[in-house]
Model the fold of this input.
Amino acid sequence: MLPCPNGAAITAALSPRGLVVASCLRNITAVGSWLTARGYGTPERPVAVIAAGERWPDGTLRPALEDLLGAGALICDLHSQGAGPLSAEAAAAKAAYEGTGDLARAVAVGVSGRQLAAAGFSEDVAIAMEEDVCTVAPVRDGDGAFAPD
Done:
């Protein structure tokens, strides 16, 4: 599992080469365009979009609303560019994103948003919710590091 540096990151794992592209609300169009330009998002070149989540203090996985919405945003972008067909899970994440009128508010009142605000990181939550302000599609290289492609 990859860390969520801004609280909204998700990953798109690509087969068969095992490529991983990191995505969040801030770079949805860049990642969607990178994927579709390379022919991903088809039955022949499927994409697995994974809402990264985070960890509870005891180390167990904690799903995060912002990651579900970020996954839905990427799926929505890919679908608008002709990717598909969508799995039931992908369609549900897409519907969650499309059905959330005010992303910033939804995340701010969610568990992660409230915890971050209580810890003094409200501004970080607002930054993480900015859509399409980054044009970089970070791709994991052979050493496991992410670099812009």
About this structure: The beta strands are 10-14, 19-23, 47-51, 54-55, 61-62, 138-140, 146-148.
